[in-house]
Design a protein that fits this description.
Blueprint: E1 6-10, H1 12-15, H2 19-29, H3 39-50, E2 56-62, E3 65-74, E4 101-109, H4 118-128, E5 134-139, H5 144-152, E6 156-161, E7 171-176
Parallel strand pairs: 4-5
Antiparallel strand pairs: 1-2, 2-3, 3-4, 5-7, 6-7
Length: about 180
Amino acid sequence: MIGSLIFRHYSSVEAEEITEQLIALYLDVHAGQGDFYGEDRYRRQLSAHRQRPGWVLVAAALNEELIGYVYGFPLAPDTRWWDGIEEPVPVGFTEEDGHRTFAICELLVRAQWRRQGVARALHDDLVRSRHEQRMTLLARPDNGPAQAAYRSWGWRTVTRLRPGWPDAPLFDVLVRDPGPTG
């Protein structure tokens, strides 16, 4: 069925048209996972992230129904992405210049579409489009399926980080070279 899916890249401006769908999918995926995953916080996060230069979203739809998406942006020199990182980290690990690191902020797929290659297809589509030296994302240590998928896709864990958002969980910090997606 993945062949029937339509994958589309959106700029920040283009994504405004589907903001409510993005939020609805996020809330569906994270239902019952606590206050951190609430609508107000995610709406603020999405709005703030969309303002970042180079922000891009790849969405998967079937019959015009959004079933998954991934988005991110390059980290600017003054990024707060690394705030809350646990030491030690390699020297220079958190230094950014706007071209070094692309941060994947969300990779979400509706429950009925999981384990069918949708997340991998979204991931690979986004990764192939990037030119930064490396990529990073945050994953909950207790999310076994996501952790296993990321490892199989070439990601490695470097340390942990707790974002400055209220009620934020602790996340593993993963990185990968942007090369072939295998």
